Amino acid sequence: MPIFDKLTNAAKEFFIEPDDETGAPTTPPTVPYGTPNQPAGAAPAAFNAPPVVQAEQRHLDHIAGLLAGDGKDFGAYMKMVKSMAAAGLSGPMLYQTAFNAFAAVNGATIPALLASASQFEQALATDRDKVMARHREKMGENATPGAAPSQVAQLAAQEKKLAADLADLTRQLQAKQQQLLQTQQQLGEERQKTQAALASYELANSAALADLQAHRKAAEAFLNVTK
């Protein structure tokens, strides 16, 4: 029957295919039983992380290394499940058929298989804790005594210093602006006083000159007549 032919081919492909499965079709990842339903790649709320739609290859390689086993573990079983899913199986039949074929090859038991899955989950959780601790150090949230500050911590300290310097310069600028306004006001007042004094002098001078010239003309006129 066609379905059994597909299952046979899937089992053969699982056992003889190389580790590189870049060309093999895959099914959507399943959430292990008992694992909280959390969006993949979700960053903690404390971090303003940019949206990431695809993991970097170095991270994928690192995770693959954590999940690498001896071919008799839950990781190998997952590969068989995905291979048979590509052949058309789904639901309980998929997982039961895959286990029967898996156990027939390496003698695996259900408790041992699920225990292997728990070990992988623990390995991922432990590795994530280590990565998060290193991440907090890089972000400057946790400082290790005696360790050199991270690039992020150094830049954060520089940003803080520059912000303080800028605030101080802003205060100085505001003080200088106030002094400038006061000086400009005083300058305007002094110019007005000076201009008013000059105008007063001009009035006095012109009045005296006019008076002097008037009396001079009169004197010249009358003195010339008497001669």
Automatic annotation (TrEMBL):
Biased composition regions of type Low complexity, renumbered to the chain: 32-43
Organism superkingdom: Bacteria
Keywords recorded for this protein, A-Z: Coiled coil
Chain intervals for the UniProt region annotation (Disordered): 17-43
Coiled-coil stretches: 152-193
Name by which UniProt lists this protein: Uncharacterized protein
Organism: Hymenobacter cyanobacteriorum
